[in-house]
Amino acid sequence: MPNIVVLGAGVSGLTTAYLLSKDPSNKITVLAKHMPGDYDIEYASPWAGANYMPVGKQGSDHERWERATWPYLKEITEKYPEAGIHFLGTLIYNRKKDQESDTGKWFSELVQPNPWYKDVVPDFKAIPSEKLAPGIDNAQEFTSVCINTAVYLPWLVGQCTKNGAVFKRAVFKHIADAANAHHTGEKADLIVNCTGLSARTLGGVNDSKMHPARGQIVVVRNDPGPMLSVSGTDDGEDEALYIMTRAAGGGTILGGSYQKHNWDAMPDPNLANRIMKRAIAIAPSLVKPGQGIEGLDIVRHGVGLRPLREGGTRIEKDEINGVKVVHNYGHGGFGYQASFGCSVEAVALVKEALQSTLRAKL
Ligand code: FAD
């Protein structure tokens, strides 16, 4: 029975642990500084919307991960209402003038009229050009999901625990030290590294390709109906406009921003004002007729750092100080919508890496 440590309890660590825990022969300890329930700038997962808005370029690994994730999210939504995910219609608006901005590049696949994901999500439809508001070049609608992260992350913990995984708080300066913290007291045979942005500073990993894309949000009690995303804004190259209402009373997320290399943990009140004004301008049903931002009932302002990696997400085998490692980090703004696709591949690498260890033990 292999002893496995999953380092990190964000959506990447929890999804990987969940899949690993389905095999009863794996003895799993999930170790993390932050656990579901915490809100911290070093912990991206609670801040996410989160929804499924594919952004991976056609033919890329990223596309493969997002494509592979949809059936899992669909199944969880249908079978487990207690997981905090619901289906919701979404509108996507494209303005060609946003093409070269940071936000426009991030959303370039999402907003194009003939994207690969049109055959993955249900009810994909182009909106006829005569129905488009001035300034919008093309638009589409489809059915997606919106995840209440405050419910979904604990649900994943529950599934892992039910399957025998053990959760412990711990902070490590060097990744190899995590091998000595398995709950059995024995040394772990393998560590899965799901440390997100902290892979930049974690000893033995020190991945300088990791950097943040800062996302600021406002959570409100108002409910505008369908979700909505726009290719960009007129307020700045790295500002964004999206709206989504979470399942199970999770409130509505008004976003946002995509500020690369910006580490600021404090909400910027001016940006918050722009986010709220933009949201009402595009979705007037957020407030009562004639109301402005005073009509929004604010739950909280928030900032999260998307763990972006130059060159893309790292899903790879490694050996550090004699300890086998499988990396699964660097999921930028797509950690939920690519979660199962990435974790299935990480789990396959875990099995591969453990073959030799298991042979030696027999
Ligand atoms: P994290 O959630 O950051 O978790 C890292 C874990 O590692 C934590 O448990 C941490 O404590 C632990 N850790 C790190 N270093 C150490 C150490 N040295 N010792 C012990 N523990 C350690 N994605 C979507 O798919 N859809 C969306 O709609 C969406 N919206 C977003 C909106 C915002 C505002 C933001 C900020 C992000 C959004 N994302 C979205 C992206 C998504 O949130 C991230 O990709 C995802 O949360 C990354 O998860 P992770 O598990 O890799 O990292």
UniProtKB/TrEMBL annotation:
<feature type="binding site">
    <location>
        <position position="195"/>
    </location>
    <ligand>
        <name>FAD</name>
    </ligand>
</feature>
<comment type="similarity">
    <text>Belongs to the DAMOX/DASOX family.</text>
</comment>
<keyword id="KW-0285">Flavoprotein</keyword>
<keyword id="KW-0576">Peroxisome</keyword>
<dbReference type="InterPro" id="IPR023209">
    <property type="entry name" value="DAO"/>
</dbReference>
<dbReference type="GO" id="GO:0019478">
    <property type="term" value="P:D-amino acid catabolic process"/>
</dbReference>
<dbReference type="InterPro" id="IPR006076">
    <property type="entry name" value="FAD-dep_OxRdtase"/>
</dbReference>
<dbReference type="GO" id="GO:0003884">
    <property type="term" value="F:D-amino-acid oxidase activity"/>
</dbReference>
<dbReference type="GO" id="GO:0071949">
    <property type="term" value="F:FAD binding"/>
</dbReference>
<feature type="binding site">
    <location>
        <position position="333"/>
    </location>
    <ligand>
        <name>D-dopa</name>
    </ligand>
</feature>
<protein>
    <recommendedName>
        <fullName>D-amino-acid oxidase</fullName>
        <ecNumber>1.4.3.3</ecNumber>
    </recommendedName>
</protein>
<feature type="domain" description="FAD dependent oxidoreductase">
    <location>
        <begin position="4"/>
        <end position="344"/>
    </location>
</feature>
<keyword id="KW-0560">Oxidoreductase</keyword>
<keyword id="KW-0274">FAD</keyword>
<dbReference type="Pfam" id="PF01266">
    <property type="entry name" value="DAO"/>
</dbReference>
<dbReference type="GO" id="GO:0005782">
    <property type="term" value="C:peroxisomal matrix"/>
</dbReference>
